[in-house]
Structure to design on (148 residues):
């Protein structure tokens, strides 16, 4: 076991640095990105109307956060698995989810002002690196099945 750790020390170090970058994005989110929903979702938002937003600033803030999380996620996936086909699949999936989630987010803001819980969860998928938490076990499982 210890030999395997020594064997993969570079991979572990790089993966740790990527995870620290995720933590940095989370720690400095209010300074890095415009998002009036930070305070909104920390308050009692159940019956509160959506806050006033600058749609362009909100779009760019969410887009750049999604972009940085995606970039770090793709780097982590590549470092862990060194699989170009899996990386291409991940890029496609992140692009697909970008379109679907951003479409849903702005439709909810525009046409469903009472759907705050739905907006909460859609926004959560945009701003958090949740997909990498799904992709890593899936790629690991696939890699184990290929070995059999």
């Amino acid at each position: 076991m210890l030999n395997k750790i020594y064997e993969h020390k570079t991979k572990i170090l790089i993966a740790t640095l990527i995870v620290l970058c995720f933590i940095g994005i989370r720690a400095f989110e209010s300074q890095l990105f415009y998002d009036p929903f930070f305070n909104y979702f920390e308050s009692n938002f159940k019956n509160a109307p959506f806050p006033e937003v600058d749609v362009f600033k909100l779009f760019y803030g969410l887009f750049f956060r999604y972009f940085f999380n995606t970039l770090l996620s793709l780097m982590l996936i590549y470092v862990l698995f060194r699989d170009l086909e899996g990386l291409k699949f991940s890029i496609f999936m992140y692009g697909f989810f970008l379109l679907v989630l951003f479409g849903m987010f702005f439709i909810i803001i525009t046409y469903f002002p009472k759907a705050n819980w739905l907006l909460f969860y859609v926004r959560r998928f945009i701003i958090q690196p949740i997909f990498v938490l799904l992709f890593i076990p899936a790629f690991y499982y696939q890699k184990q099945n290929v070995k059999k």
The mean pLDDT is 91. The radius of gyration is 18 Å. The longest helix spans residues 84-111. Residues 11 and 79 are 6 Å apart (CA to CA).
